[in-house]
User: What shape does this take?
Amino acid sequence: MRPDTDDYRALFLNDVPMMDARAPVEFAKGAFPGVVNLPLMDDAERQKVGTCYKQHGQQAALEMGHRLVSGQVKEARLQAWTQFAERHPQGYLYCFRGGLRSQIVQQWLREAGIDYPRVVGGYKAMRQFLIDTLEQAVAECGFVLVGGMTGTGKTEVLAQLDNSVDLEGLANHRGSSFGKRATPQPAQIDFENALAIRLLKLRGAGIERFVVEDEARLVGRCSIPLPLYQGMQDYPLVWLEDSLEGRIERILKDYVIDLCAEFIGEFGEAGFSAFAERLQQSLVNIQKRLGGECYKRLALLMDQALAEQSRSGSVDLHRGWIEGLLREYYDPMYAYQRESKAHRIQFAGSQPEVVDYLRARQA
Assistant: This one.
């Protein structure tokens, strides 16, 4: 029989399969990548047992729990746990604090002939371990930021480096006002957990200097953890440059061609309409900052481009509103940012030059 474990580092470094016995509502608030939620109690059962515990104490709550999870309900859940244990013989189970719920699941599995270990301290201890992991990385490691105008391909730079941390990828958002994807963003805690695990794995591979994109505090609705964001206000900066034409083509690909394909892949025939609505709403969201006249002009160009794309599949007209948005909205904003951060810029150049510089810097 394998013993219970409190080696959280090994669990995350090795992507060990884990079964989360918390209720679905707890799991939705925060979980770990790849973990499967197979609860002892559903949300309604957990609420009833919690109320009973407050009013009548632990023993009464325990008895109620056993009454609620019995018969066919118990058999169905035991079958799901058994299948997980058989599929993942090297895995573990846990609940919130590694206490009663995971012990009951463990006991019922044992009665069914399966010895399956649990994580001591449960979700709470693992979550604290990841918070500490992130804070330690910020305190002990070196970071450099990649900045640049919208559409220069900062994410492409990160993809070419083995010491990069892609905050936008982890947040499932492209970071800008137009950055929403077809699929939803993770919960805040899930984002933080995934970020900490990425740093843990890089450090486990001997990497102590990281490259991240220069971001605002919010990546969509995911907030960069405060220790890292505070550090990002002082980290050295590398500035990525590209021509206006190159940037227009990259934005056309990312925010029109690829995003449209994403929506169609996700929603089928309704995908194009959902994509068009998303694009139009993104422009509405910055209407005040654009000003009334500029917004109307760009909205008209966007509507014409979407109509043509729907009719013929051609995306050529989208270049019109993209260029206008860059010239009149993003570029003045980024020019100001560059000026305010000029003292931190250690290198500026094209994508190949920046990649070469960052690789040499890591060596």
Q: What stands out?
A: The two ends are 44 Å apart (CA to CA). The chain is about 60% helix and 10% strand. The beta strands are 18-20, 36-37, 92-94, 142-148, 164-165, 209-213, 218-219, 222-223, 237-240, 345-349.
